[in-house]
Amino acid sequence: MKIKVLVDNNTLTGSYYTGEPGFSLWIECGGRNILFDCGYSDLFLRSARRMKLPAPDTIVLSHGHSDHTWGLFELIKEMSESGTTARPRLILHPEALGRKRLHGHEAGIIVERGALADYFDLRPTKEPLEIAEKLFWLGEIEPAVHPRKALGEKLSGGEWEPDYCVDDSALVYDGKDGLVIITGCSHSGICNIVEQARRLTGKRRLADIIGGFHLRSGSDEEMSPVISYLEKEPPARMHPCHCSCQRARLALAAKFESGEVGVGTELDFD
Question: Is 208 within 8 Å of 239 (Cβ atoms)?
Fold first, then answer.
């Protein structure tokens, strides 16, 4: 499996790519070309062009927030203008299709379901799914280690209510050296995500975790439960990025082997 970072808050020194407060990965696995999240704008398309990447046959959305989904509009525009008849699979949790608000502002998918179905093979699911050889969508994450926390609001039955981000999911690759967790923002809790990946695969050893950990303060209160869980069976390395603040990344790097991430980062797993 190969991973290339198309969108992240950071860029690598000397790479001359552009960053934005969003996230998108390119994944090649088992003959599949997979787009994991699509950032906030057309940046993922610009990065993909510079990397000379083909069109994806599968798109996976980690959750419904704008910094992971608004690029879908740009992708649809490009598909429409090019006249392509390809309809990539679009895998996501059903609740990722709903409206969301953060601080009173629109923060969910801005393309309505009917339009998505016109351009993609829409596959909303709460259940785990093998999307390529040894690469699995985790489905709805159980709060088995830590309770969920509300973030913003979601529209439900015509009323706005606290959003516990049950649509937030992730991928796991069952690799030769252990499990590789690929997460967007970890609103479900990074420890809950890791535990679900372990339950699904029946494997415990972690080779890597890459993505946003949603650790926003790096405080002892925030970090202690995460570090305590991961220390019991530590990953060989990790690549926290996107919504993982600097203080959190430093705290993780003090305990675990941690790599730098930015637009242009490439990772390879057997």
Answer: yes
